[in-house]
Design brief:
This protein is mainly α and 240 residues long. It has 12 helices and no strands. It is globular, with a radius of gyration of 19 Å. The protein starts with 15 loop residues before the first helix and ends with a helix. Belongs to the UbiA prenyltransferase family. It is found in: Membrane. One of its GO terms (cellular component) is membrane.
């Protein structure tokens, strides 16, 4: 059963540190770390490809890519929390919207601002970065937002996750870096290998992530692999 939030929304100018702490939780730290490491790795691979090293001239391209990617990350996970607030009161009651530390209005403002910033600043970096970010946002929106809400369907939900994390980000961000360094666009085997590895890894994430969320997903009719097979049978299947 869903629970009523008993906390009052945090206001930035009243409790700035507490508000920033909630913003950090709202941003889903593990995804922020993952996005940051992914962009950094692609930057370093691109530098190695052109036989260059980190310097003040080319590090600007890293920052130009990192900011919209992080904003896009917050938009995607934030939108999911806005749509899943009642489910999260069961599955993830510690999240700011579910716990009441952020109101729906605050969440909408954060999602709207980060989404706009992601789109605007990505196109300032050029077409490859712009296409990458916009495509990621579109898939992330389709994943969470009704009436499409692809997360209701386990195969399509998994497809969204590994497409964005595995394919779109890796190929698109690398092409942005390599074009910034050389004014040409091409891929190298190292990036294709990284992409294949991340696709496999994110498929595993897409499969495992719903195991702890069985109760809330069942109550709100979110069909996952765990629900289809049953938690115990699903875990046995994964172990095998």
């Amino acid at each position: 059963m869903s629970q009523t939030s008993i906390n009052s929304p945090r206001i930035f100018w009243k409790t700035p540190l507490a508000w920033l702490s909630s913003l950090w939780e709202f941003s889903r730290p593990h995804t922020i770390v993952g996005t940051s490491l992914s962009v950094l790795a692609l930057y370093l691979i691109a530098l190695a490809t052109v036989d260059s090293t980190v310097n003040l001239e080319n590090i600007q391209y890293l920052l130009i890519a990192l900011f919209p990617c992080l904003c896009g990350n917050v938009y995607i996970v934030g939108l999911n929390q806005l749509e899943d607030q009642e489910i999260d009161k069961i599955n993830k009651p510690y999240l700011p919207l579910a716990s009441g530390y952020f109101s729906q209005i605050q969440g909408r403002y954060i999602v709207s601002i980060t989404g706009l910033l992601a789109i605007i600043t990505s196109w300032l970096g050029g077409s490859w970065l712009g296409i990458t970010v916009v495509l990621s946002l579109l898939i992330g929106t389709a994943y969470s937002l009704p009436p499409i809400r692809l997360k209701r369907f386990p195969l399509l939900a998994a497809f969204c996750i590994f497409t964005v994390r595995g394919v779109v980000v890796n190929l698109g961000v690398f092409l942005y870096f390599i074009h910034s360094f050389t004014s040409t666009s091409f891929l190298v085997p190292e990036v294709l290998i990284l992409t294949a590895f991340v696709v496999i890894f994110t498929v595993a994430i897409a499969i495992f992530k719903d195991v702890p969320d069985l109760e809330g997903d069942q109550e709100y009719n979110i069909t996952t692999f765990t629900i289809l097979i049953g938690k115990k049978q699903y875990l046995k299947f994964l172990v095998v």
